[in-house]
Amino acid sequence: MLIRCIIGVLVLCAIVSFVDSQGSSIFPPSCYLNVLIVLDRSDSVKGGFNRSRDFVLNVSQELNINQNAHIVAMIVYSGASYRRQVFKWNFAKSNEEFYQVVRNLRAIGGTTATKKALEVALDLMDSRNKTIPTLIMVVTDGRSQDDPSEPAKHLQAIPNTYMFAAATGDPALVDKQELYTIGGHVNHVILQSGRELAADLTRKLLREAQDKCRTTTTTTTNYQNITLGRELAADLTRKLLREAQDKCRTTTTTTTTTTTTTTTTTTTENPITGCEQDLVIVLDFSTTTHPIYKAYQELAERLVSRVKVGLRYTRVALVVFSSVGWTQTKFDLDRYDNAEDVMYHIRNLQYTGGTTAIGEGISEAMKQADEAHGARPELANKIMVIFTDGWNNKGPEPGEMSKKAQALGFDLYTVGVKEPESSETQLNQLTLESIAPDPKHVFTNENFDQFIEIARRRNLKCL
Ligand SMILES: *[C@@H]1O[C@H](CO)[C@@H](O)[C@H](O)[C@H]1NC(C)=O
Ligand SMILES: *[C@@H]1O[C@H](CO)[C@@H](O)[C@H](O)[C@H]1NC(C)=O
Ligand SMILES: *[C@@H]1O[C@H](CO)[C@@H](O)[C@H](O)[C@H]1NC(C)=O
Ligand SMILES: CC(=O)N[C@H]1CO[C@H](CO)[C@@H](O)[C@@H]1O
């Protein structure tokens, strides 16, 4: 039924591209729109009003009602002797408000006085925002007791105004001539119809609509003969409206992002979640561990995926070591605010090779106790987890470094990976236990899940 409305959207598309190609407008006009709904409440067919009301509700889903985008007004009418309800521009400040009002409308009997309603519409048009386009949608099955053609012509003649007439009832019972008079053009009449060929037609229309948006200026395609089933037509219209507004949405997204950033910044300093945790992951990327480093990456990723990563929750830093002088902080605690980015970084680490300098790795990781690297002393608990086989052959004494790290408040764990074949010799238990405060802080791939549970503890109430 909304099919002809599409033409309205096409016209808007044309304006969009036109304005755009001139570069004179940042926002396409279809982002700003006055929408005036004139709703026939007479219920000449039992249940007819409910259908019309639901139609309006449905179409409104594609609107972005708010003072800076789509501004709505509405006239609800029946016979001349019945009270008309006039909702002035901006009566609803949001889609929710609009929805509330419309949903609570009930049918009242009586005749249909569309002429009178359109005269009221003319009055309302005076107070619209004249700098933006206006869409007028008259929802009626026709058969007005008074002749609406006079005020309809006046409305159609208002610059930058697009007028449509929509009927939600059985097309056979609709006064098509009257709808034509109101819409002013056959393409501005929206009727219900069967759903035959609807899918094909829809696809064709969509394709054409998009072509129009790209090339534009002439919108002469005649859809006179095309009718669609109600549901499909509503879908289609909504889709087109959405596409017409794509540019607005990009803008909105940008705004939202800004807002989010602001919020995050504010909240970092403000509320304490009780889930603060500084997690420093230290990976042994030396030759002795090749190709086990891949297993370290996988375990580290799994760990990150299970805790609650966020600036107010678990912050993650990553240190990679191999030979002396090759130790590197890959990222500080305050670098990422989400698990995905951390995991992505870990997954894409390049293997370096070299000798093993565990002590130096721990020493580098200790920097993450510093606020300059994003640490939250007092607030967060500190975990340092070192993925290594323990075969240290260069650099500072790991046991000593470990004690220093513990003195800074780090709860220090080691994780080794056992290879299935030669499982006795591959892990240097002695070094591992000299690094860890006690054997309970030494883990392997086999009981790694137990370590994950420890690392999750601090976040549990925020998960
Ligand atoms: C119209 O909708 C209202 C509430 O939404 C309902 O109470 C009423 O029964 C409906 N009327 C018909 C005829 O379906
Ligand atoms: C009309 O709408 C435009 C776009 O939202 C807005 O910039 C302008 O301030 C509005 N004018 C009035 C008088 O409200
Ligand atoms: C609007 O129509 C679509 C189908 O076209 C339907 O799925 C949806 O439930 C309708 N929404 C309302 C609020 O009537
Ligand atoms: C395909 C189709 O619906 N064709 C119709 C176009 O309109 C004329 C008259 O308006 C009908 O006779 C055709 O059946």
Description of the molecule:
The protein has 463 residues and is of the alpha/beta class. It contains 15 helices and twelve strands. Strands 3-2-1-4-5-6 form a six-stranded mixed β-sheet, sandwiched between helices. Helix 5 links the parallel strand 4 and strand 5. It is rod-shaped, with a radius of gyration of 34 Å.
State the shape: rod-shaped
Describe the strand arrangement of the main beta sheet, using strand numbers.
3-2-1-4-5-6
Number of strands: 12
Heteromolecules bound: 2-acetamido-2-deoxy-beta-D-glucopyranose
Number of helical segments with 4 or more residues: 15
Radius of gyration: 34 Å
What letter string, H or E per element, gives the SSE order? HEHEEHHEHEHEHHHEHEEHHEHEHEH
Chain-averaged pLDDT: 77
Specify the helix fraction band: 40-55%
Quote the beta fraction: 15-25%
What does the largest sheet look like?
A: 6 strands, mixed
Structural class: alpha/beta
Low-confidence stretches: 1-29, 194-233, 249-270
Protein name: VWFA domain-containing protein
Keywords: Signal
Domain VWFA: 34-205, 278-460
Organism: Acrobeloides nanus
